[in-house]
UniProtKB/TrEMBL annotation:
Assembly and interaction partners: Heterodimer composed of a glutamine amidotransferase subunit (A) and a GMP-binding subunit (B).
Assigned EC number: 6.3.5.2
Upper classification of the organism: Archaea, Methanobacteriati, Methanobacteriota, Stenosarchaea group, Methanomicrobia
Gene label: guaA
NCBIfam families recorded: guaA_Cterm
Name of the protein described by the UniProt record: GMP synthase [glutamine-hydrolyzing] subunit B
GO CC terms of this entry: cytosol
UniProt xrefs under Pfam families: GMP_synt_C
InterPro entries per the UniProt record, alphabetical: GMP_synth_C (IPR001674), GMP_synthase_B (IPR026598), GMPS_ATP_PPase_dom (IPR025777), Rossmann-like_a/b/a_fold (IPR014729)
Length: 304
């Protein structure tokens, strides 16, 4: 982006023009919504109410860390773990899952809006979310995953024209901490799109532990654009001479500039072997570990 300062000025002006009262800001703690938080705060000050929804589908320690970072910004934390599990119950199709997630996401925000008497919602949708949703590739939770009918007077998306690398530039210019500016992307629907098939409490726990191990092994050392673990099915194993019908974990690590295309990371064999060993020994329910070798395209980054 040529003129970051100009973008910031314009974005603040636009928010002021569109919002004539209080607004909720859906904060996930990722770089996109954090940038929107700073822009909106500068635009409407205390009329902004940042809301963080704990979907129960976050990574280990994520909610606690977000509260530590943004607690001073008057963050309201909503615990909606049960609502999301309930909304996702029995759903196996990836697109249906995304719509079910989007429905609960918006209804939870509407509940807060009613309580706080707020008419506007600000969210950190970026350009690729639109391209992928409207191009029919996958329904991002904040675009096509949203229900058509909602109570908000308007949903405002201050960075809807930006790619991820541009959002990071804006984040740096706004003075957000490096932990946020360089934060690895994490999808709104969280671990639910890293569990193929139905989402259950048990699978979420296993996916959460697997994601922690993968991040511990790969994040610092290789600095991938994105890395994660997904539960892709079940397979027969043998643990302690006993048959174990356990989870197959797929590990993904990619390089990318803006998430629109991606290349799998070349990871040394011994690192992959350590991952396999840690995942199968530290998580008793895991029997197989695989590494995803596909670029985007033809794959996408998340499996669902
Ligand atoms: P895909 O899987 O489409 O992902 O190649 C591209 C980037 O978008 C993230 N992603 C999402 N982000 N809501 C989000 O906020 C979503 O529904 C969603 N789906 C995918 C993905 O993690 C990757 O960084």
């Amino acid at each position: 982006m040529v003129k970051v300062d100009r973008f910031i000025e314009k974005a603040i002006e636009n928010i002021r023009r569109q919002v004539d009262g209080k607004a909720l800001l859906a904060l996930s703690g990722g770089v996109d919504s954090s940038v929107c938080l700073v822009l909106a705060r500068r635009a409407i000050g205390d009329l902004l109410i940042p809301v963080y929804i704990d979907t129960g589908l976050m990574r280990e320690g994520e909610t606690e860390r977000i509260v530590e970072i943004f607690g001073d910004a008057g963050l309201r934390v909503v615990h909606a773990e049960e609502q999301f599990l309930e909304g996702l119950r029995g759903i196996t199709d990836p697109e249906e899952k995304r719509r079910a997630f989007g429905e609960v996401y918006l209804r939870v925000l509407e509940d807060v809006a009613r309580e706080e008497e707020v008419e506007y919602l600000i969210q950190g949708t970026i350009y690729p979310d639109f391209i992928e949703s409207l191009g029919g590739i996958k329904s991002h939770h904040n675009v096509k995953g949203l229900p058509d009918v909602y109570e908000f007077k308007a949903i405002i998306e201050p960075i809807r024209d930006l790619y991820k690398d541009e959002v990071r530039e804006v984040a740096r210019a706004l003075g957000l901490p490096p932990e946020i500016c360089e934060r690895m992307p994490f999808p709104g629907p969280g671990l639910s799109v890293r569990i193929l098939g139905e989402v259950t409490r048990e699978k979420v726990e296993i996916a959460r532990r697997a994601n922690r191990i993968v991040e511990e092994e790969l994040l610092e050392k290789f600095r991938p654009w994105q890395t994660y673990a997904a539960l892709v099915g079940k397979g027969t194993g043998v643990k302690g001479d006993v048959r174990a019908y356990g989870w197959i974990v797929a590990v993904r690590a990619v390089e990318s500039r803006d998430g629109m295309t991606a290349q799998p990371l070349e990871i040394p064999h011994e690192v992959l072997m350590r991952l396999a060993s840690r995942l199968t020994s530290e998580i008793p329910e895991v029997t197989h570990v695989m590494y995803d070798l596909t670029p985007k395209p033809p794959a996408t980054i998340e499996l669902e």
